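Intended use. Records like the one below are meant for learning the mapping from a protein sequence to its folded structure. Do not use them to infer anything beyond what is encoded.
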Amino acid sequence: MIKRILIAMAVAGFAMSANAKSVKSNSSTQEFDYEVFKTVTLPSFPDIEIPIYKSAGTEGPAILLVHGNSSSSRSFLFQKFGELGRDRKVFMMDLPGFGRAGKVDSNIPFPVDSNGIPQGFPQYQVGMIEAIARVANDPDVQAEVLVGWSLGGDLILLTQGLGLLPNTKGLFFFGTAPVGANPTTTELPFLGPNVPGLNLSILASFGFSFQFNPNAILGFDFNGLFTDPVPAYAPSPIADAPDVGAAYMRAFFNERRRLNGDVPSFVLTDGYDRADARARGSIGVVSFNLLPPGPIPFPDELDVLRSLVNDPNDPNDDIPVAIIHGKQDAFVNLQYLEGLKAGGVMPTLWRGDIQVVLGAGHAVQLERPRRFNDLVAEFVNSL
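Structure written out for the chain above:
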């Protein structure tokens, strides 16, 4: 399998670099893209097109992989070209604002309300949920297993909670910290260090385009860029990065690689060059609960997990959820996940436990692809 993946990497133009700046300046020689299987548009936002990609495999049930913040479908390179994708029907997509998906006109300023409170773009809020539902339910996809990385896991939970995934047989998350109003633990979802005065991880804040701004009505805004210098309050090793983007994306990997090792160049170019920073800011608005109540509120992620028990008297009617965690994840607090498990928040947890993968950080699918692919296959086989 490894030999075949190496061949696929060579064909795809996979390149490695330890220097975020050189990756950005030389990205044109290191880029690759999958062949698009089909493209769909969002009913509420017809200007936003969503590309869908497919592996060569034909065995069902269909699996949909949803990437994380400031990433793209390319983060699933090893799944598409590995044994998982060769054998099974594996679909990928680019979320609005990321990869090759549609983006809001760059001339439109970041929306704020009449009081100056940031509101963000709905294309990058409800539009992301709509994109997942649109792809998963497409007649040529019909996904029954949904796999979400980081933000992708949160979005899948929200989409499931809104009843937009009627075909779901199983959910699989990694690098995701589900949040809600009543967690059964005092642990915080994300690891520190935190932004001064806030229960907000510094690394996570970079993914929200968060920055302090004394001229903003809230004292902060969501207009930060990945090319901004790392804020002075960030300690080492975060402060050692050349800019916010490098600090954030290097943190996807295990301790050795995030400090001074090689990381895939496409990971960095996806964040610097192929992501709309306003998408990050729009996600930040939702995370800070700054949106006014809408006609259909976002569901509570913890309530969605609890609701996966469809019939208490019939376990065969439940929707299993697999939770995977890289042992060296720099973002997600494992003790928080363990607290949710102990509190009964995840009654359909696969194998009754969180699957911890040694030697991996936040991006388990990139650092331990064989182990990751095996876990996905084992989960699918158990359904």
